[in-house]
## 1
Amino acid sequence: MSAGAAPVRVGIAGLGRAGWHLHARTLATLPADYRVVAVHDPVADRMAEAVAEFGCTSYVDYAGLAAAADVDVVVVTSPSATHAELAVQALEHGKHVVVEKPFATSLAEADAMIAAAQRAGRILFASQNQRYSLLFRTVRDVVSSGKLGKLVEVKTHWHAFRRRWDWQTIPELGGGTLNNDGSHAVDHVLTLAGAGGPPEVFCRMRATPLSAGGAEDHVKIVLAWDDLVADIELTNACAYPQPKWLVLGENGTLVAEGDTVRWRYLDPAALPPRTASAAPAEGRAYDTEELPWVEEEASVAGDAYADSHVRMYTELAPALRGTAPVPIPLAEIRRQLAVLDQCRPALTETPIAEDVR
């Protein structure tokens, strides 16, 4: 980033929960890098609030924002089913584009978006902010350190017990747990797995009466490579949440629960050699030994959800100015969408409750 560079001028399409709290408010905390200059939302009061807070221009029609000459990058935070259309339109007007998760609701949509970015020669960035959470960064760093050895299995649980009745429970708008949480959880697991080939995908999903709109709210995904298995569980029907992460390696284990990440590992070079024997066990006893464990832990207390957006936008700014590579390559996002696409046929037909029980 060059010294004294002007702030990147941002137009935000969608001023709902994510657009307002996570994007607009985050960008306002980074005035040296960003300035909100334009907004669009179907709710007039939301646009008036943005105009009052940011001194920006409001557009009743999205086309006006996408074409605005004073907008460098468009942030798409509208309902999920509209992401592809709005992103492509902005790219065709020569804008860089940031897309709130889910990046797209199908691999075909993602490919159309990527093709539009390539034609335009502009940056298309997926808002995978959870890659920037301290919890995930700690898990990733421990795995990358090699302390756990070669990974055997990765488990991640996104557990809650809650009722929902907002637009994210409506399939036609791109709602559902697969899009809402799966876009983060699958991205995390693929990041930990590294650059291996595509996994075998198993998925089962169902819609429970806890979500009023009929979209799935319980998702089980199992990804399998030749020597690694990942178990992903996303649900609104767990009243006893399990640890967010359990990572098993040949040399140790990591567990992340609440604000604490703990890992226990050993150095295999410090172990005495053992040779398998078919002889009767002395005293009919099981093999036992004291293992020289090393135990470490880290606290991520105080890391707010919005903090991950600050880190993400801070890292993205140099790329938007052309002085650094894009932090998250589109090939990695496409890999995520390919997994999610294989899960979609797993949604079984279940009755839609008229009200949330």
Note: The chain has two domains: 8-127, 132-304+338-346.
## 2
Amino acid sequence: MNQEPIRVGIAGLGRSGWSIHAGLLSTLEEQYRVTAVVDADEGRRQEAVERFDCMAYTDYDELLNDPGVELVVVALPSHLHASASIAALEKGKHVVCEKPMATSLEDADRMIQAAADTGRVLTIFQQRRYQPEFIKVREILSSGLLGRIVQIRVAASGFSRRWDWQTLQKFGGGSLNNTGPHFLDQALQLYGPDYPDTIFCHLDRTLTLGDADDFVKIVFKGPNAPVVDIEISSCDAYPPETWHIQGTLGGLTGTPRELRWRWVVPEEMPPRELDTRPTPDRSYNRDQLTWHEETWTPPVDTRTAFQGFYRDLYATIREGKPLAITPESVRRVMWLQEECHRLCPLPQEIE
């Protein structure tokens, strides 16, 4: 079994390629070695050479033709994800593609087909599946402690302006495409394996200086599944907590830094029967319930948790273990994003 470090080429040294991927890979030296990078900015290339003693290219094809690169991390602007991933797969490289997987469902399907045709590994960097508080939320919901889950509400809101390339439609920008994949993916993982059959979406431009959306409201539902409510807003002066979950035996609320949940035990609830007679003193029914409550804080920081993505990928490439985050599982995110764009098209993009 080949247990040598996987040789990585990073395409794009911006916020994601440098601050996230290069940072994570540098902490996993036994599993990965950055051997090449490509970026148009000379300063960024030089910084990578000094840090990793790697090859630095100005042209993406040069990186793909480097025989020392086994795995390509596609951290280019969103509208290039599909074409860059497919080109790497066709050159025999494994691929980690940043989110969003693509800017259309058709392109996502082309990526999946290219991975199948070439026999290479394609995975999407939906790293928030490894986020400690998400794992804890999933654990609590799966335990049945909160009963049947009626609604899952997820919020990622604040009050701020943006004016970079991610605010432009022509680059695949907007909050739905850029912030949305994190929370749509988490919500769909909790929702269940099926595709929802009822979707409401509203997209709006509020504070962004570009032409893409910066307010996203999505509500979806399906048979035997909870209602899911997702809000991503740039104009929320009083942002709510990330999680608010309602169940028939209790609920959960909180943020990545702290979760709180409370529940009742059916056997401890006073026996009641439906009674249509007038209530004493015209009062409402009042239940005397015994609540059980717990709180949780993450045992590790987020950066350490996200190492799990690359550890699992190493096990897939070097040891033949099943891929943890399959492109097919991320396809549902792409499908939901495309449905939202169809239901609520934005005005024509800026040229």
Note: The chain has two domains: 6-125, 129-275+287-301+333-343.
